[in-house]
Structures are given as C-alpha cells and as structure tokens.
From TrEMBL:
Protein name (record): Pyridoxamine 5'-phosphate oxidase family protein
Pyridoxamine 5'-phosphate oxidase N-terminal domain ranges (all copies): 41-162
Organism annotation: Algibacter agarivorans
Length: 188
C-alpha cells in the first residue's frame, strides 16, 4: 500500500485503481516520491496569483453535488495572506449564493487558475471560511477603482497545490495584453 502523500488529496484509492488499470499509476507514484505537491505558498505561486484577474472555484454541497463558478476582478484580487492562506473579496453579484451556501455545509474548495498566454495552470485544494466581520481584513480588499460592493471575504487555507501540464491549453490574450502590439502596428 502507498504511504500518505499530499497528492493523495486527488489520488484517492479509486483514482489509483483507475491509474493502475490505465497504466499511469507508476508514473504518478514516482512523481509523488520525487516531487510531491506542495502545501505552502512559494514565491513562484505568489507571483502567479498576483497576475490573475480570474479563476474558477469549485465547491460541493453536503450531498456531494458539485458546483463550479468563475470569479473575476482586477489583477491581484485573489490575495496571498501568508504562506498557507489566500483570500478574495466576494463582490455583490447575481445573489444565488450557491458557493457560500455550499461552504456552510462543506468547506472543501478547489481553485483552478489559468495563465492562457503562457499556457500554465495551477490547481489549489483548500478549506474555505466566510468572513463578514473582520473590518481590518475587509479593508485590505477595497479597491477604489473597482466600485462594486464587497459582501464578504472568502478565506482559503491551502491543503495542497500543484502546477498542471500545459497540454490542451489554447493561448488566449486579453485586450490589455495585445493593445501595445495593436498600437505599434497602427503607428507603423
């Protein structure tokens, strides 16, 4: 039997059985032994997060019914608080409260961050908590250039994270990223 690795958060016994069946288990076992996933925020991860203006967040209710949601804001709206915690302002939106309600029953969360131009993605597993009454923390998320009301802060304690392969990521660029090149062409 395998010893406990951080990557076991995703590679459960049934996943390992499927990997064995499909022929990839040895490779993932070797990966875990040589370079298992991480639990602390490194400078590399901190930098990657600071450049993101969106991410995808998965939650599940008590029955295990999954839900995924896109979260967006100004670059850096997902903030690193320390070497094991992230947080972001939960802005007023469509008022469905599915993720927040899910966290009331099941605080497990998964973030998926993608850098489309550089074809990089990071997966983060964690535990979410909802913060509504810590004014010092909430003040850190006020952005005078982004005039949308903050309803709460969602704080995430990282359980594990990993860099995922670039395979199948189609390069995409924001207007902000391509505007200098367009301007240069116009000037020529």
């Amino acid at each position: 039997m395998d010893s406990r690795y951080i990557s076991d958060i995703a590679f459960t016994p049934s996943v390992k059985n499927r990997q064995e069946e499909m022929g990839s288990r040895v490779a993932y076992q070797n990966m875990a032994e040589k370079r298992d996933w991480q639990t602390k925020i490194t400078e590399q991860l901190r930098f990657f997060i600071s450049k993101r203006d969106s991410f995808y967040m998965a939650s599940a209710n008590a029955d295990g019914q999954p839900y995924i949601q896109h979260r967006g804001g100004p670059k850096g709206f997902l903030k690193v608080l320390d070497d094991q915690h992230l947080a972001f302002a939960d802005f007023s939106g469509n008022r469905q409260y599915i993720s927040v309600g899910n966290f009331d029953e099941n605080n497990k969360v998964h973030l998926f961050l993608i850098d489309y131009p550089n074809r990089k993605r990071i997966k983060i597993w964690g535990e979410a908590s909802i913060i509504t009454n810590e004014s010092n923390l909430m003040e850190q998320f006020i952005d005078k250039d982004y005039d949308v009301p903050i309803e709460r802060i969602i704080k995430i304690k990282i359980t594990a994270w990993d860099i995922n392969c670039p395979q199948h990521i189609q390069q995409r660029y924001t207007i902000e990223e391509i505007k200098p090149y367009i301007d240069k062409l116009k000037n020529e």
